[in-house]
Design goal:
The complex is a heterodimer of chains A (522) and B (250).
Chain A: H1 3-8, E1 10-13, E2 28-31, E3 35-43, H2 48-51, E4 54-59, E5 62-67, E6 75-80, H3 95-104, E7 110-125, E8 131-142, E9 147-157, H4 162-174, E10 178-180, H5 184-191, H6 213-236, H7 241-260, H8 267-282, H9 285-295, H10 297-303, H11 309-335, H12 337-350, H13 366-386, H14 394-413, H15 420-457, H16 461-492, H17 495-506, H18 514-520
Antiparallel strand pairs in A: 1-9, 1-10, 2-7, 3-4, 3-7, 4-5, 5-6, 7-8, 8-9
Helix pairs in contact in A: 6-7, 7-8, 7-14, 9-11, 11-16, 13-14, 13-17, 14-15, 15-16
Chain B: E1 2-6, H1 15-28, E2 33-37, H2 43-47, H3 61-70, E3 73-74, E4 80-83, H4 92-97, H5 105-111, E5 119-123, H6 130-138, E6 141-146, H7 150-165, E7 173-180, H8 185-197, E8 205-207, H9 210-213, H10 215-218, H11 222-225, H12 230-248
Helix pairs in contact in B: 1-12, 3-5, 5-6
Classes of the chains: A alpha+beta (522), B alpha/beta (250).
C-alpha cells in the first residue's frame, strides 16, 4: 500500500445492524471470502514491545513483529514459532532475535491479549459493473470473556471515483456510522484487564515544595509498596529475573528513605519497619546472587581461555540446580500468610489517613528538609572521597558506594523538586560514579563468592583451576576500576559540581532555622 | 519509465485489444501501469467499464498534463489506472499544432507521470497525424498489429517509409500478426514473406477468435475472464515477448 492510498483511506465505526445493508439500494455489493484470524499479542511486564513502537503477535504458529502505527501492514519480521520462546536469546539468529534483543532486554515475553480479527472486503459496483469503491468490513472480538469490541468499515476510495466514495460515506453516515480513529489492535490491548502502562521505579509522586514531610514520605512509600505488590506475581511465576530485582530495589529504597528522613515518623516504629523490610529482602539474597551469576554465565566464560570453559560450565550447572531449589523456597515464603501479613501491616502503617504520634519533622515542608539532607550526604561523600587512594581497602570503597546509593535514592525520590537542568547534570555524574563503584563491588563480591564456592563444594582440580583463573581476571578488573573510580570521584567532588550542589541544596534550605535542623537532622 | 504504444494507420486490426490485454499483463507483473486512451472512440475505457473523460483544457502542455492527471481513474485491477478518451481528443492535432515544438509535446506531458508509473501504454487512433507523430517521438516501443492482408501490408510499408523520411528510429516499430486465420492461404503466404523484410517482427501470432470479440460484452480484458483460451495464451505470450524487449532497452 503506498502513501497516497493510505492517506485516502479512513474508517467508519459501524452499528452492528444494519451494517452495510443500506448500500445495496444504490450499488451492487460483492463480498470476498471473510478472513478470520485468531491473534495472540505478546509483550513483557514493562511493555517493551509496545513502548518500542511495535506489536508482536502470533497466529497459526507464525510470529510477526509489526510497526504499531501501521499494523497490520508493515511487518518488520516474522518467523514460524510453534512455541513462543520467553527470552530473546531463545530465538534463532535473525532479524527477530536482533529486534527483540533491544525491545525485551532481560524481560520475558508473555501473552497479553487474545482476540479474533475478522476482515471481509467488498467491491461496490455501479450500473456498468465498474468497481467505484472498496470497503473492508472489520471486527475485533476480545476473548475471555468473548465480546465484540469494534465493528468498522475501512473505506478504500478508488482514484477518479472520489465522488462515489463521498456518496458511500454519506449513505453509511445516514445509517448511523461515524468516522473513528481507533486502532483495532490497540483497542484490544487497551480493553484487556492489563492495558499497556509505563513501568518505572522512579515515578512522579506529585510532591510540592511545601508538602508536609510526613505526607510526602507516606506518598512515596505507598508508591513503592505498589511496585512491590506489582512485582510479586512475576516472582511467584518465576517469569524473569527482573521481578525479584525490582522487588528488592523497592524494599531497599523504602528502607533507605525511612533512614534518611529521620524525625518524620516515631523512631521506634521506623526501626521496626526497616527491620521487617530488611528481613524480607535478605530472604531473597541468595536467589538474586544466583540470578546474577547465571545471567553473566556467557560473560564469565568469555573471560577464560576455551580449555577452562567446560569445567566452569559445570559450576554454572550447579548454580542452576541450586536456583531451582532456591526459587521454590522463596516463592513458598512469598506466598505464605505470614509474609502477606507483614506486607499488609507495613501498607496499613503508611495508608492514607492512618494517624501516628507527632514527631519533630512531620509537619515541616519537605523541600528544605530533604535538600538539607541531600547536601549533608554530598558533603559526607566528599569527605570519604578525600581519603580514598590506591591503598584504600575494599571496605572503604564499599562504604563510599553505600553513601552514593543513599544520595542517589534521595535525589531520585525528590527529583521533581530539583530544578530540571541541575538534576540532570548531577544525576548523570552520580550515575557514572556509581557505575564505577558498582563494577568494583561486583568484582569484589564475585571473587569472594567464587572462593566460597570452592571452599564449600571442594570441586575437582579442573574446576578449581578455572575458578582460580576467573578470580584472577576479576581481581585485575577490580584493580582497573580503582583508576576509573578515582577519575569519576574527582569529577563528582570538583569545584563546579560542589558549587551546583551548594547552590541547589544548601542555599534553598537556609531559611529554615538552624536549630530546627539540628534537632531533626541528628 | 517505458512508454509503449499500440498503433496502426489502419483501423479494426486489434490495437485496442492489444493495449487492454497488454495493460492487464503489465499490472499482473507488478508494474504500475497507466493506459491512456487517445482514440476518441473510447473503446479501451469501454472495456474497463468506464465512461469518457472530462473535457480537457489543452491550451499548453502544463494544462494538458493537469487535465490528463485529473482524469486518471483506477481500474478494477489494482495497479492499473486508465485515462479514458473524450471526443474532444479529435482536436488534439489542432491544439498540438498551435504549440511550439509541436512534434515533441506529448513526451514532455508524459514525463510528468514518471514518478507514479513504471509503464505508460498509449492506445492510438488509426490515422497518421500530428498526434501520431507525437506518439512516435514519445514512445520507446510501438507495437503494430498487422492482419496478414495486402492492405495491412501496404499500411505497414507506409509507416516504415514515414519513419525513414522523418528520420525516426524504425527499430522501435514492432509489428506482429493479428486476427490470423490459419486456414486462409493468403494469410499464410503473407506471414511467410513479410517478416523477411521486417527484422523486428514479433514472433507471436494472435489468432482470430470469437473469445476476443466477447470483450465487448464482458467489458474486461480477455485475460481477466478467459485466461486459458488459445487467444488469451497468445496475448500472454505476445505481452511477454514485448516485455522482454522493453526490459532489454535502456
Amino acid at each position: 500500500m503506498n502513501e497516497k492510498e493510505q492517506k485516502s483511506q479512513f474508517a467508519l465505526l459501524l452499528p452492528v445492524e444494519p451494517g452495510l445493508e443500506c448500500l445495496r439500494s444504490r450499488w451492487i455489493l460483492e463480498g470476498r471470502p471473510q478472513e478470520v484470524r485468531n491473534l495472540v499479542f505478546w509483550d513483557t511486564f514493562e511493555w517493551g514491545v509496545w513502548f518500542g513502537g511495535y506489536l508482536l503477535s502470533s497466529c497459526n504458529n507464525l510470529l510477526q513483529l509489526t510497526d504499531r502505527a501501521r499494523w497490520p501492514g508493515s511487518v518488520l519480521c516474522q518467523e514460524p514459532a510453534p512455541e513462543i520462546p520467553r527470552f530473546w536469546q531463545e530465538f534463532a539468529s535473525g532479524p527477530m532475535r536482533t529486534a527483540l534483543r533491544d525491545l525485551l532486554g532481560l524481560r520475558a515475553l508473555a501473552p497479553v491479549a487474545e482476540g479474533i480479527f475478522r476482515h471481509q472486503q467488498y467491491d461496490l459496483r455501479n450500473e456498468d459493473g465498474k468497481v467505484v469503491c472498496r470497503l473492508k468490513l472489520r471486527s475485533v472480538t476480545a476473548l475471555e470473556p468473548e465480546r465484540l469490541l469494534l465493528q468498522d468499515c475501512l473505506l478504500l476510495p478508488l482514484l477518479g471515483y472520489e465522488a462515489e466514495a463521498a456518496d458511500v460515506t454519506a449513505c453509511l453516515t445516514e445509517a448511523g456510522a461515524h468516522v473513528h480513529t481507533y486502532h483495532p489492535a490497540e483497542l484490544l490491548l487497551q480493553s484487556s484487564g492489563n492495558p499497556p502502562r509505563r513501568y518505572t521505579l522512579r515515578p512522579d509522586f506529585g510532591l510540592k515544595a511545601a508538602t508536609p514531610a510526613r505526607e510526602a514520605i507516606s506518598t512515596i512509600v505507598r508508591s513503592m509498596l505498589d511496585l512491590v505488590h506489582a512485582n510479586l506475581p512475576g516472582i511467584l511465576q518465576d517469569r524473569d529475573t527482573e521481578f525479584l530485582h525490582d522487588y528488592r530495589i523497592c524494599l531497599r529504597k523504602i528502607r533507605s528513605l525511612l533512614s534518611l528522613v529521620k524525625g518524620v515518623y516515631p523512631v521506634t516504629d521506623i526501626q521496626q519497619i526497616r527491620a521487617t523490610l530488611g528481613d524480607l529482602a535478605r530472604q531473597t539474597n541468595r536467589l538474586r546472587d544466583l540470578d546474577v551469576y547465571l545471567l553473566a554465565r556467557e560473560e564469565y566464560l568469555d573471560l577464560l581461555p576455551s580449555p577452562f570453559r567446560p569445567a566452569l560450565n559445570s559450576m554454572f550447572d550447579d548454580f542452576a540446580l541450586e536456583r531451582e531449589a532456591e526459587i521454590r523456597t522463596v516463592t513458598a515464603r512469598l506466598a505464605s500468610p505470614a509474609f502477606q501479613q507483614l506486607l499488609h501491616d507495613v501498607s496499613v502503617y503508611f495508608a492514607e489517613g492512618t494517624q501516628h504520634p507527632p514527631s519533630a519533622a512531620a509537619a515541616l515542608p519537605v523541600e528544605p528538609l530533604v535538600f538539607a539532607r541531600i547536601y549533608r550526604r554530598y558533603r559526607t561523600i566528599r569527605k570519604i572521597a578525600s581519603g580514598i587512594d590506591a591503598s584504600t581497602p575494599d571496605e572503604g570503597i564499599h562504604q563510599l558506594r553505600i553513601e552514593c546509593k543513599k544520595l542517589r535514592y534521595l535525589m531520585e525520590f525528590f527529583n521533581e523538586l530539583i530544578p530540571g537542568d541541575r538534576s540532570a547534570t548531577l544525576q548523570k555524574q552520580l550515575r557514572r560514579l556509581q557505575g564505577r563503584l558498582g563494577e568494583f563491588n561486583d568484582a569484589s563480591v564475585q571473587q569472594a563468592s567464587l572462593l566460597a564456592y570452592r571452599e564449600q563444594r571442594q570441586p575437582g582440580a579442573e574446576i578449581s583451576l578455572g575458578l582460580g583463573g576467573l578470580v584472577s581476571v576479576l581481581y585485575q578488573q577490580q584493580q582497573q576500576s580503582r583508576i576509573f573510580i578515582k577519575q569519576s570521584l574527582d569529577e563528582f567532588c570538583s569545584g563546579p559540581t560542589a558549587a551546583i550542589f551548594k547552590r541547589t541544596f544548601k542555599l534553598s534550605a537556609s531559611h529554615i532555622t538552624t536549630d530546627l535542623y539540628r534537632q531533626t537532622n541528628q | 519509465m517505458n512508454i509503449i504504444s499500440s498503433y496502426s494507420i489502419k483501423g479494426g486490426v486489434g490495437k485496442t485489444a492489444l493495449a487492454v490485454n497488454l495493460a492487464y499483463v503489465l499490472r499482473e507483473s507488478g508494474r504500475r501501469t497507466l493506459l491512456i486512451d487517445l482514440d476518441p472512440q473510447g473503446a479501451a475505457a469501454f472495456y474497463f467499464r468506464m465512461g469518457s473523460a472530462k473535457k480537457l483544457r489543452m491550451r499548453d502542455s502544463d494544462a494538458l498534463a493537469d487535465g490528463l492527471r485529473s482524469n486518471i481513474r483506477e481500474s478494477d485491477f489494482p495497479g492499473l489506472d486508465i485515462i479514458p478518451s473524450n471526443l474532444a481528443y479529435r482536436n488534439f492535432d489542432i491544439v498540438l499544432d498551435s504549440m511550439s515544438k509541436s512534434r515533441k509535446r506529448l513526451r514532455k506531458v508524459l514525463d510528468e507521470f514518471k514518478p507514479d508509473y513504471d509503464v505508460i501504454l498509449l492506445d492510438c487512433p488509426p490515422n497518421i497525424t500530428l498526434l501520431s507523430e507525437n506518439v512516435f517521438r514519445a514512445s520507446d516501443l510501438i507495437v503494430v498489429p498487422v492482419i496478414p492482408t495486402v492492405l495491412s501490408q501496404r499500411t505497414l510499408d507506409q509507416l516504415t517509409l514515414f519513419f525513414q523520411n522523418e528520420e525516426l528510429p524504425v527499430e522501435i516499430l514492432r509489428p506482429f500478426f493479428s486476427m490470423v486465420q490459419k486456414r486462409n492461404r493468403m494469410h499464410r503466404d503473407i506471414m511467410d514473406e513479410l517478416p523477411l523484410s521486417n527484422p523486428h517482427f514479433l514472433k507471436t501470432v494472435i489468432p482470430f477468435s470469437a473469445d476476443v470479440e466477447k470483450m465487448g460484452l464482458r467489458r474486461m480484458p480477455l485475460l481477466a475472464y478467459s485466461s486459458n483460451c488459445e487467444a488469451a495464451m497468445a496475448y500472454r505470450a505476445l505481452c511477454n515477448e514485448i516485455l522482454c524487449q522493453t526490459a532489454a532497452r535502456p
